[in-house]
Each structure stands twice: as C-alpha cells, then as structure tokens.
C-alpha cells in the first residue's frame, strides 16, 4: 500500500491536562476547541495556509484571545492535527487509511492553492489521483474510509471515483491483473497456481459495508461482462464474512440490547444479499440459499424476502444435499432439534413450481428425474431426523406424504427411515405406529428389504400381515408365469430343431411329424386335464349343493315335527281314542313327506 510523506521537522506536539500544544519559544496565541480537545497553537503558522482561520480571526480583535470552536470538523481532532502539523512542517504520512478525513478537514479549513502554492489540498488530491486510484487495495481502503464521512466523501467525489476505479479493475481480464490481492480459499496456494483466479477480487470487496458493496455489485451487474456465477460467488463470500452461524445466532437472540442492534444490521445485510442474487438459475448454490433461509426467521426478515428465498431454494432443491437441510429449529416453542418446517416449505414450493412449469406432464423425463431426486433427498433427510427424540409423528408423516407417488421408485429408503424412527421411539402408541407405517407401500419394497421387514419386531402386526400376503401373492404369480414360460420355451425349442436329410439329399419330414405328434399329445393331455378339473369342480359343486339340500330337509323336518307336537299338546283334553288316531295320522304324514324327500334325493 502506498503512502505520501510530507514535512521534515520532528513531531513536537504534546499533551498537558487535556490540551494539545507544540514546543515553541513563541507563546501560543491561537486557541481551537474540537469536541473535548483544546489546541494551543500559533497564528503565524496556521493562518497563512488556512482560509477559514483567517476569516474567523479577522472577525475578532487582536486583543481578544477567544477560543475558536470547530466541533463540526470532519474526522475530528485527529484530522485537524494532521492539517496543523502540515502547517508547522512536521513530518506526517498520508495513506489510503487517513486520506479521506485529511482531505475533508483540509477542505473545511480552506487550505487551497489560492492561499499558498503547494498547499495541503493540492498535495492530497495529487496523491489521490496518482497513487490511491491506481492501486487495488488502496482504492478499497479509501472507499472503506468513506463510511465514516459519507456526505463529505460524496460531495467531494471521493466515493464515486473509488467505486469507478474498483469496477474498472474487477472487469480487467484475469491474465492482465498485476496488482496484489487477497485470496485465502482453502487448498489454494499462489505458488502452485500461476494463473489469476476469476474470483480474485471477491475477498477484498467483502471488507466494505453493505451499502458500498451493493453499489459495486449492482454496477458490475449492469455491465453484463461477468457471469452470474461470479456475482453469486461474491455474494457468498460476503455473507460468510458478515452473517453469523445459526448456532451463534440462536444463542445471541436472548442476549443484551447490543444484540438487537446486531440483529438489525444482519437483517439489513441478508435482505440486501437476497435482492442482489442474479435471476439466473445456478448463480448461487442451493446450499447457500437454504442457509440464508435458515437464518431468515430468527433475524426477522420481511415476508417478501423470505418468500423469495423459499422460491429460489425450491427451484434448485434437487441440487441440495442432506447436510444442506440439517438446520436446528429456531422456534422457542418447538422442542425438536431439526427445522422440518423449513424443508417442508421448500418441498411444497418445489412441487408447485414444477406443476406450474409442466402442468399434467407426468411422463416428462426431466420432471420425473427432478422429482425422484428430491424424493430420494427427502427420504435420506427423514433417516436423519428420525433420530430426534422430540420429532413428532405428525411432522414426520407430513413430510413423507408430501412427496408424490411418482417421486419414489422404491420405498426402501422410506422403510429405513420408518425403521429408525420406530427404534428411537419404542413407546409409540398403536395409532401412531399405524399412521407411521400407513405411508409404506409393500409392493414397492425390494425382496431383500421385504424379507427384513417381515422379521421386524418393531412393525405393527397389520403391516407384517400385508407383507406376508403380498409375498404369497407374488409367489403365486411367479409360479404361474414360470409354467407359461416353460411351455413357451418348449414350443420354441421344437420349432427351432433342425430337420434331417435322407440319402438323396432331400429334407426329411420326421422331425415335423414328431413335433406334430408331441403337439397333439400335449394339447390332448391339456384338454383332458382341463376336463378333469371341470369335472372335479362340478362334483365339488354338486356335493356342496347336496349337503346344503340335506341340511335344509332336516331343518324342515325338525320344524314340522316340532309344530305337530305343539298342536298335540294343545289338544290334550280330547279323548284318548281320538288323540291316538290323530297322532298316528300325523306321524304317517311326516314319514310320507320324509320318504318323498328321500326319493328326490335318490333321483
């Protein structure tokens, strides 16, 4: 970093009882107050170079030694002392760090070339244009210094000139970069990489405050020279430097009032970064968007910003990894560790986005690939959050059910998540187990996983029965299919059998006749088997009908005999001869009916 040395005299300024003065044989005749500091100086040294002091001293008589109050001095007492030392010829060093307050103070004191050639303002402006603006880090440092004097810097054109110099250097092709820069990426060593990286400027620019950083980024974007991914990398570097981690942030929420001020500053930074993200997909990573989203709620960002983050994260959701989703819950009312609400919001937005882009296009390959990638991501995420002791079944099931059916080719990963959840939560009620396992489809499990599930003691009995039923049904279908395939293979083998030739070289018909005989035999046996099967089925049906008929006849006989006995009991007061005669007639009628049923059965 460059600097300018002015003056040759040694520094003879000293402090005595909160008063700054200079060693001299001449008595001080100029008193200047700047905030809490008082200066005892000499008019002979300062007035020839300071137009403001000339005017203020001319307004007062020489006999009066009235202090001059310059409380609005830009840069305060330090900047004024640099100007005073220049007037005394004391040796001073000017660099990009103290240039801004020095120039602003010199401008206020009117230390112009019109008063004296080679005055302080002229030397500072020459140093600014020839050294500071020509250097990369000098321009960054000078622009950073304008943060303390924004109005003065803007009015004097310092801010605009620094920004233009920085943008010009950023747009310079990397092979032409000759100045020093800061680049501390992990694994990068300048000795091994002779070429300049494309994002060489991002770390130095991240030292600026958010307003100045925004000015530079928006100016670069307006040129359309750099790719959006490079702009996104600059935003990522800035966010990593200024935004706190989620654990640190969560602990600071309940701290002192200073933390509220820090929260407001971080909220401003987050909202500004989101507004600067290029519209191009992939300009920033999905993990970066999810990290910003995870800290948006505790920082209290605006709903517009949060909605934009959810939308941007959902567009690139399939690119995320499980580690990108593992953020602790920031709600004070939520006891669970992982923030599943964040993942659910992004997942729902992802599905809405694809339905809007591809309405009804279920067979679209790109759509299916994206949804299945997201489905696999969610199942892997569920396997991690299932280990949370405080994870409620409702949130687990809600997240699993949000994935559409086309999002899972197999349910193996989902089964693993459910199995982990059941092991970690052994005290689940039957209703919760039923609800949890209800999202599992047995037919979508691979044979290995299905065999494990049948022996899983944590699964409810109903799920195990469904697995066994599906396994039995599948075995039956495979047996039938194998028989049909075997018959088909025999038929193809007979057709492909080569024909022989006789002694005269003519093709023989023996194989054809053998094939015809085999085919007739096979069809005949198949027809006989079918007829036997039909005959057995008819016999079974006839036997079943005969048994039913026999039961009905016996039931009818029992009912008739019972009714006759009841009638006999009611006529008990009749004469014994008549009673005997009626009883015999009733018995004969019952026997005749029974014999008729027997004849019908014999037929």
UniProtKB/TrEMBL annotation:
UniProt cross-references to Pfam families, sorted A to Z: NPH3
Q: Where are the transmembrane segments?
A: none
Ranges where the record places region Disordered? 478-544, 557-603
Q: Where is the composition biased (Basic and acidic residues)?
A: 499-544, 557-583, 593-603
Per UniProt, which keywords does this protein have? Ubl conjugation pathway
PROSITE patterns, alphabetically? NPH3 (PS51649)
The reply on keyword Transmembrane helix is: no
Recorded protein name is: NPH3 domain-containing protein
Supply the source organism for this entry: Phaseolus vulgaris (Kidney bean)
């Amino acid at each position: 970093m460059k600097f300018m040395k002015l003056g040759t005299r040694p520094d003879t300024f000293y402090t005595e009882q909160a008063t700054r003065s200079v060693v001299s044989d001449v008595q001080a005749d100029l008193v200047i107050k700047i905030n809490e500091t008082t200066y005892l100086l000499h008019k002979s040294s300062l007035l020839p170079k300071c137009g403001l002091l000339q005017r203020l001293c001319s307004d007062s008589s020489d006999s009066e030694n009235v202090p001059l109050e310059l409380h609005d001095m830009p840069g305060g007492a330090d900047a004024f002392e640099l100007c005073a030392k220049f007037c005394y010829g004391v040796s001073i060093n000017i660099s990009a760090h103290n240039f801004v307050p020095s120039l602003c103070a010199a401008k206020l004191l009117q230390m112009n070339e019109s008063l004296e050639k080679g005055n302080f303002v002229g030397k500072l402006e020459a140093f600014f244009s020839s050294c500071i603006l020509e250097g990369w880090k000098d321009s960054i440092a000078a622009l950073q210094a304008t943060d303390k004097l924004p109005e003065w810097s803007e009015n004097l054109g310092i801010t605009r000139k620094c920004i233009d110099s920085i943008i010009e250097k950023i747009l310079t092709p990397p092979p032409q970069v000759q100045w020093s820069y800061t680049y501390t990426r992990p694994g990068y060593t300048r000795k091994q990489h002779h070429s300049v990286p494309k994002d060489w400027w991002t770390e130095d620019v991240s030292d600026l405050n958010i307003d100045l950083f925004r000015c530079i980024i928006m100016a670069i974007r307006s040129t359309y020279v750099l790719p959006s991914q490079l702009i996104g990398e600059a935003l990522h570097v800035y966010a990593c430097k200024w935004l706190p981690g989620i654990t640190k942030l969560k602990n600071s929420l309940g701290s002192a009032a200073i933390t509220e001020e820090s929260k407001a500053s971080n909220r401003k930074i987050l909202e500004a970064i989101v507004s600067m993200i290029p519209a191009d997909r992939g300009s920033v990573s999905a993990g970066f968007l999810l990290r910003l989203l995870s800290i948006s709620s505790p920082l209290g960002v605006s709903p517009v910003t949060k909605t934009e983050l959810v939308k941007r994260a959902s567009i690139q959701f399939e690119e995320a990894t499980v580690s990108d989703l593992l953020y602790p819950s920031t709600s004070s009312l939520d006891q669970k560790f992982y923030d599943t609400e964040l993942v659910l919001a992004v997942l729902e937005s992802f599905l809405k986005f694809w339905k809007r882009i591809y309405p009804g296009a279920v067979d679209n390959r790109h759509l299916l690939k994206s949804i299945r990638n997201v489905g696999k991501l969610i199942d892997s995420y569920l396997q991690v959050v299932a280990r949370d002791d405080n994870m409620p079944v409702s949130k687990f099931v809600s997240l699993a059910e949000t994935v559409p059916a086309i999002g899972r080719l197999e349910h193996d990963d989902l089964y693993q998540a459910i199995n982990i959840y059941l092991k970690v939560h052994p005290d689940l009620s039957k209703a919760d187990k039923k609800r949890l396992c209800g999202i599992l489809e047995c037919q979508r499990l691979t044979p290995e996983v299905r065999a494990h599930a049948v022996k899983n003691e944590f699964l409810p009995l109903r799920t195990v029965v469904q697995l066994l039923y599906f396994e039995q049904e599948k075995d039956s279908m495979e047996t039938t299919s194998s028989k049909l395939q075997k018959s088909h293979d025999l038929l193809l083998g007979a057709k492909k059998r080569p024909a022989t030739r006789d002694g005269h070289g003519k093709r023989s018909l023996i194989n054809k006749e053998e094939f015809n005989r085999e085919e007739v035999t096979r069809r005949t046996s198949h027809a006989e088997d079918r007829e036997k099967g039909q005959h057995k089925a008819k016999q079974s049906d006839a036997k079943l009908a005969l048994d039913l008929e026999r039961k009905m006849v016996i039931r009818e006989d029992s009912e008739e005999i019972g009714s006759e006995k009841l009638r006999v009991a009611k006529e008990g007061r009749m004469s014994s001869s008549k009673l005997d005669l009626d009883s015999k007639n009733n018995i004969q009628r019952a026997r005749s009916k029974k014999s008729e049923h027997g004849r019908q059965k014999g037929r």
